[in-house]
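As a warm-up, study this chain.
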Amino acid sequence: MNVIVILCDTLRRDHCGPYHQGRPLNRCWSDEAPDWVVPTPNMDRLAARGTVFDQCYCGSTPCMPARRDIYTGRYEFLERGWGPLAEEDRDLPRQVSGPPNRSVQWAVAQGYKVSYLITDHFHLWEQGSGNYHMGYTGFDFVRGCEADAFYTAPEGDFPIPEGDRYSKNERHWRNVHHIRQSEGDFFCAQVFQKAAAWLEQNRSYRDFYLHLDIFDPHEPWDPPEDLLKLFDPRGYDVPGMTAAAPYAKWREALTESQFHAFRARYAAKVVFLDRWLGHLFDRLDRLDLWKDTLVILTTDHATFNGDHGRIGKLQTHEFDAVGHIPFIVAHPTLAHGEHRAQLVQLVDLYPTVLAATGRPLPELPEGQRLHGVDLLPVLADANAPTRDYAIYGQFGKSVSFTDGEWVLHQSPVADNQPLYWYDYALSKFLHYDLGPYINGRRRVLACESWPEPTWLSYKPDDMNELHNLAEREPRRLHEMQRALKDMLVRLGAPSEQLDRLGLRDF
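Now compare it with the structure written out below.
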C-alpha cells in the first residue's frame, strides 16, 4: 500500500483532539495547563478512520536525533547527538527507493518504490545535519522558515519584534516580509498544498512513500492573528514578545502576561496546522486514496508549556510533557476508530513503512541491530506485542524509561563519564566538547547533564510526573534500574553507558 508520514515538530499530545477529546487542557492531565479547548477537527477526522496509540514515546531528542531514529530504526541518543546520516546508515528512503542517481523507471523496474520528501524544516538542510533528503526519489524544500538564510534584501522597515532583531529569527521575519501575502503562503500551508498537488500528479504509482516534515508548531510562533485571538483577545498587542519563548523556568524569564501570550500563540499554531491538514485530507478524499494508503501522523517530541514550571524544550528530564507524544495511524481497512495501549516509538516507523510498501528489511552493518517494531500486526490484532519498555532521552543527559505506568529518569554519575560520541562527524548544532576520532569514536571531554536527580513517577496517579517517588519507593526504583540495564544490554548500547549511568552493579 501507499504510505504518507506526516511528521510535525514539537506537537503536544494534550493539544490534539483525539487525546484531549474536547476537554479543556487543564482537565486532561495537568492542572498547570490553561483552561481553553484546542479544536483540531482534522486530527479527529484522522482518528475516526484510524487508530490512536495512547502510549507512544519519542526516542532520541531533540529535532534531528528524532529524525535519525525514524530514518534508521535505531535509537541515536545512546551513541551520539545531533548530526547527519552516517555513510553506513541504511536510511529509510533509500531502502524504499534504491540506490541514488538512478532513473525512476529503472527503480520501479527493479522492484523499488517512488518516495518523495516535502518539507519546510530548515534543520534538514543546515550544517550538521544536511543530508536527510538524499535517499528520496525526489524532494521539495519550502524556503524561508526560522533561520533559513534565504532573503537578504536590506529593507529595514518590515515588522519584527525588537527582541528578535539580533537573533536568528530576524531571518525568519525578513523572509516572511518577502514571501507572505496570504494565509496560503504560511510555510506549513505551502507544504500541504505541495503535498496535495504531488498526490494529484503521482497517484498512479503503486506503494509510494510520501514523507511530510513540517516545522509547525515549532517556534517561531507567528500564527494568523484571528486564530491567536481565539486564545488571547490581545492578539499580537503584547509588549516584550519575541517569536520564540526562552527554554527556561518561565517565572524567571517572563511576566505572567508574556507567558500567557506564548501559550496562546502555540495553541493557535496547532489550530492552524490542523486547518491545513484538512486540505491534504480533502485531496485524499477526492482522489479516493484512503482505500490503499496508510497515513501516519506524529511528532518528534513535545515541549514544556507551564509543566514543571517551565516553557520550551530541553532543560531537564524528558518528562511526560515532552516525551509522551501523539501517534495516529489510519490503515485502509484495519482498526478504524480504535485505540491501542502498546508501547510504541518513532523507531517503529522504519519497519512499518517498509512492510507497508512491500520492501524488505535491510541487513545492518556488523554490531548493529534494528530497534523498531513493525506496527501493522498491532493494527490487525489489539493484543499483538510491541515492547515491554520504551527508552528515550538526549545524548549525554539522563535516560528516560517507562513500562507505561512507572517511569524512571536515570541521571548519570557526578562526572558524567565515561562518555563517547560514536561518529566521525563533529557536533555542530548542539555543542559537545569532543576529542579526536580514534577507533570509531570521539571521547566527550566535558558534558553537563541536567541538574535534576534520578526521578521515579507513577503515571496513573501523576500523569505529568510532578512527584519524585525515588526515595519513597526504593524497591520499585531498583526494579526499574535493573530493567533499564537489561534493555541497554539487549539494544547493544555502548557498554560504558552502564558506568556513566551508575548501573553497572545492578
